[in-house]
Structure formats: structure tokens, C-alpha cells
TrEMBL record:
<dbReference type="GO" id="GO:0005737">
    <property type="term" value="C:cytoplasm"/>
</dbReference>
<keyword id="KW-0963">Cytoplasm</keyword>
<dbReference type="InterPro" id="IPR029063">
    <property type="entry name" value="SAM-dependent_MTases_sf"/>
</dbReference>
<dbReference type="InterPro" id="IPR000682">
    <property type="entry name" value="PCMT"/>
</dbReference>
<dbReference type="Pfam" id="PF01135">
    <property type="entry name" value="PCMT"/>
</dbReference>
<keyword id="KW-0949">S-adenosyl-L-methionine</keyword>
<keyword id="KW-0489">Methyltransferase</keyword>
<dbReference type="GO" id="GO:0032259">
    <property type="term" value="P:methylation"/>
</dbReference>
<comment type="similarity">
    <text>Belongs to the methyltransferase superfamily. L-isoaspartyl/D-aspartyl protein methyltransferase family.</text>
</comment>
<keyword id="KW-0808">Transferase</keyword>
<dbReference type="GO" id="GO:0004719">
    <property type="term" value="F:protein-L-isoaspartate (D-aspartate) O-methyltransferase activity"/>
</dbReference>
<protein>
    <recommendedName>
        <fullName>Protein-L-isoaspartate O-methyltransferase</fullName>
        <ecNumber>2.1.1.77</ecNumber>
    </recommendedName>
</protein>
Length: 381
């Protein structure tokens, strides 16, 4: 624990003594005694292998690495393949400590502030908040009742009794309200009205906003008129989407893709999109109702980045042929992507913290380029 705190402080991620003390005091292995790590087994199948933080130094140290530890798999997709391995998709995890520490620093808490955490998960982040503020000021909610029960037990075992509840975190913590800080360790496509309503004027909301092609961490201040305004943070990271079902993520319904229309030259490459997070974020501003996927051609084995829109339009740029795009449906999809690319380059490739985010009292949201005010209105999702 102390070594983790020292590592985070030496890296400049923790700069507040009180947060260093919290990380040194809270035993991560107590909250994450088991987790899953991805590997390829002897049969060539990609599986999640269960690991345990046993008491010997080697296995105990594994729980304190600066990595995200997957703690639960979607039961609708999980299939056990041997004694300690499963296939499937992760639905819960313990976030890598450096990201947690950076977010907690960005939250700028101080003594006496009431905090709401959306996404209790393992309870480790809840315990850090308790260690910093005292458990009577900490509220946390999670959609999974089993996770909440386990977290409550583990928190009690190390001396913390925060206010815990089970429910849809997008509805906040209705029994309480009047929060000075709200921190979400799940993503949402928009700031829920309940968070703003349950925040005091002057409160800070810190969350991962999901905008389709990309999203990111935003830090917003709530004013007297129920507006939440701020910016994307220098801290980068993403979280699993908030969900209404305790165990299963809904599968997205995608339209039939338009037939292939044309292949033509382009200046925007797959490598550009893959390498630059702030470019992907800008593409999300320009192209609402669009997602980014990796496409594998079964015939040629070619891997591409593909943008696909809700109306069936798509555009694909392969890694192997860097300067061509193939598209189906409207050609405007890729033209807009190229326009965003040119805009980003002419302004010196700005990083994500050059962009603001605002939610009006009526729920309308927009983003803007802070230096010159260029604005994009976000489509409600």
C-alpha cells in the first residue's frame, strides 16, 4: 500500500498529502482478492484466467500493480473452459490506481464536503473517499446488489460505514441529495438531470462522457441556474457504460450497412485516428450518431478502422493501404471526418483539455474549442 502511494506520488499523479495517506492506508487486495486476466490458452482460445491476491509477496504485489483488474464477467456470455478460466465480456473492474488517483485529485475535495460516487464496484474507491473525508460524508450507489453487499462487508471489515444504495446511478442517490462533489466511475452519453438536481450550487461533477466515436473525462461546475459547465480534463481514461441491468449489457441494434459505393484517395489515415485521442474526440463532435469499430476482412485478413452511422452509412480506411477510403451510403460521412482532420491540424492539433463542455438547465449540451469559441451542439442520445 505504501509503495503504491509512493509510486503515484513520485510520478506526479498524487500531489495532495491527504490522498497519499489514503492510498497508503487502504488495502486494495482486501477489496480485490480475485480478478481475471486475459490470456490465450493451450487451445488458442482467448480466455479470462482467474487470479488471487494470496498472502505471499509475489501474488500480493500483483494486486497493487497500476493496471485495471477485471472483477466480473457478463454471465450471458461467460462460459467456463477449465477450472480457472472463462470466455466472455467484462462488466465490472477495479480501475487502475493512477487513473483513480488523478480523478480524485481533479475532484478537489476538502474537509466537510459531501460526495456521491456513481459505481461502487469493489468498494476500493469508496474506501479511499472514506479515508480522505470520513465515511459519514460519502454516498455510493451501484446497479448490482451483489456488488453493493460485498462492498459493504469489505468496507465494514476495514472500519468504514459509508451510505450505500442499490439502483440506477443515473438517478443519483434520491434519498440524500445536496452533494458538493459527484464522481462517476462509469460512462454516460449525457449528464443525467438527477445529478444536477442533487448537486448544490458550486458543486463539481466529474464523469466520463460517451459521445459515440470517443468520449472522455469532463469536470463541470454547477451554477445557481442548474447549468453544468466545464471542460475535458488533462487526465485521460474511459469506463464501462452505465447500465440498468445488474448483470448484462444490452446488445446494440445496428442497421443493415449500405452497399459499397466507392474507393478513393484520402489524407486521413487509420494510423492518424488510432494514434490521436483528441482527433477521435473531435470526430465525435463532428459526427454524432456515429461509432468507431475495427473491421477485419475475412477474405484478405485486412484490418481497418471503420466509422459507421445509424442510417447505415459507413467508411473504412485500412491500415495496410494508408491513403484510401472505401465507403457505402452517403459520401458526406467521410467528407465530414476529413473536414474535422483539417480543422484539427490547422489549429496545431489541440489536446482534449482545450475543449469545453456545457449542459444547460433544459438538458441541451454542447462542446466548444476554448481558444476561439468554435461550438458544436450535441445530438441528444
Amino acid at each position: 500500500m505504501t509503495q503504491l502511494a509512493d509510486t503515484l506520488r513520485s510520478a506526479g499523479i498524487i500531489h495532495t498529502p491527504q490522498w497519499a495517506d489514503a492510498f497508503a492506508a487502504v488495502p486494495r487486495h482486501h477489496f480485490v482478492p480475485t480478478w481475471f486476466e486475459q490470456e490465450t490458452n493451450a487451445k488458442g482460445i482467448t480466455v479470462w484466467r482467474q487470479q488471487r491476491a494470496r498472502t505471499d509477496d509475489k501474488h500480493l504485489a500483483a494486486a497493487y500493480r497500476d493496471v485495471t483488474l477485471v472483477t466480473a464477467l457478463d454471465p450471458s456470455t461467460a462460459e467456463q473452459v477449465d477450472d480457472t478460466a472463462w470466455t466472455g465480456f467484462p462488466i465490472s473492474s477495479s480501475t487502475l490506481p493512477s487513473l483513480m488517483a488523478a480523478m480524485l485529485e481533479d475532484l478537489t475535495v476538502r474537509k466537510g464536503l459531501r460526495v456521491l460516487e456513481i459505481g461502487t464496484g469493489t468498494g476500493y474507491n469508496t474506501a479511499l473517499l472514506c479515508a480522505r473525508l470520513g465515511d459519514r460524508l460519502v454516498h455510493s450507489i451501484d446497479v448490482d446488489p451483489d456488488l453493493v453487499d460485498i462492498a459493504r462487508t469489505r468496507l465494514h471489515q476495514v472500519g468504514y460505514s459509508p451510505h450505500l444504495a442499490t439502483g440506477d446511478g443515473r438517478k443519483g442517490f434520491p434519498e440524500a441529495g445536496g452533494f458538493d462533489r459527484i464522481i462517476a466511475t462509469c460512462s454516460a452519453p449525457a449528464i443525467p438531470e438527477a445529478w444536477v438536481e442533487q448537486a448544490r450550487p458550486g458543486a463539481i461533477i466529474l464523469t466520463d462522457i460517451a459521445l459515440g466515436i470517443a468520449g472522455g473525462l469532463i469536470r463541470l461546475g454547477v451554477d445557481d441556474h442548474r447549468r453544468a459547465v466545464g471542460h475535458f480534463t488533462a487526465t485521460t481514461g474511459s469506463f464501462m457504460a452505465a447500465r440498468t441491468d445488474a448483470h448484462v449489457y444490452p446488445q446494440p441494434q445496428r442497421p443493415e450497412r449500405a452497399p459499397e459505393a466507392e474507393t478513393r484517395p484520402t489524407a486521413l489515415t487509420a494510423a492518424d485516428i488510432q494514434a490521436h485521442y483528441s482527433l477521435r474526440l473531435l470526430l465525435a463532435f463532428h459526427l454524432p450518431d456515429t461509432e468507431l469499430v475495427y473491421h477485419l476482412d475475412d477474405d484478405t485478413g485486412t484490418t481497418s478502422i471503420q466509422l459507421q452511422r445509424g442510417d447505415g452509412a459507413w467508411a473504412r480506411v485500412p491500415f495496410s493501404d494508408a491513403r484510401t477510403v472505401t465507403y457505402g451510403g452517403s459520401p458526406d460521412l467521410w467528407r465530414q471526418a476529413e473536414a474535422a482532420w483539417r480543422w484539427w491540424n490547422t489549429r496545431g492539433r489541440p489536446a482534449q483539455d482545450n475543449f469545453g463542455y456545457g449542459r444547460e438547465a433544459n438538458g441541451d449540451a454542447s462542446v466548444w474549442y476554448i481558444p476561439d469559441g468554435t461550438r458544436w451542439h450535441l445530438t441528444p442520445r
